[in-house]
From TrEMBL:
Pfam families membership: LpxC (PF03331)
Keyword flag Metal-binding: yes
Cofactor or coenzyme needed: Zn(2+)
NCBIfam families assigned: lpxC
Organism phylogeny: Bacteria, Pseudomonadati, Candidatus Auribacterota, Candidatus Auribacteria, Candidatus Auribacterales
Native source species: Candidatus Auribacter fodinae
Protein's recorded name: UDP-3-O-acyl-N-acetylglucosamine deacetylase
Amino acid sequence: MRKQRTIKKEVILSGIGVHTGNRTEMKFIPAEPNAGISFVRTDLPGSPAVKAHISKVVGFMRGTTIGEGDVKVHTVEHVMAPLSSLGVTNVRIELDSNEPPVVDGSSVEFLAALRESGIVDQSEPAEVFELKEPIYETEGDMILVALPYDGFKISYTLSFSHPKLKAQYLSLDINEQSFAKEIAPSRTFCFYREVEVLMNQGLIKGGSLDNAVVIGDDAVFSKEELRFHDEFVRHKILDLVGDTYLLGLPVKAHIIAAKSGHAFNLRLTKKLYEAYLKSQSVHN
């Protein structure tokens, strides 16, 4: 039987938030069994906590934002994805600002910090939602389907009408090893034509070639070579892993996605949560 998991010791990262541009110190802190995952705003009076859960999602403009009243934490998906891959179910994440550090635009440093801390099994069994019936979400040419599967697998097709970004496809069973090798290093990206629009929306204040890949009309701009020839579809899978873990527990399912982004990912996660609640009512 799978056990609940936390980390062995406190570990700290710091940097700027990609959208807010705010400098943040973030601490991963061990949590007791059944505590779940929470983000704690230590910069606010009373250090309010926001549970990492689909019911707390309050925004999805170029990233996933969770909140409780006026308390918000932006861009949580890059943190949630490595927690999912490691099977961490209980951890307290303290921030002294409103967004985790973007670091290099991937999840590599979050994963490394968590591994450095160490992952420990706890006494209580971990609840796992095993999907029994297909769930789907469609809109135009965007598709998300979740199928029963003995494990956690994502198959993603990315396609943009852009000369430098042909269709990319990847299908992968997600676990600690595959996530670390194939998904965690992939960086966030945007199109050059979007930069001014995003800035006008008050976003990407902390964005730069240090933490993102920018796709121009005739070239791809990056501080280093692309880490994979299909780095962009891999980052889409990273986002989907993180958004799905807002279900609040591990899930057994095969998720098939085409051209999905945060808003669409979260619609599927909400349906998965509804299916989970339905399964609980049947069992009870």
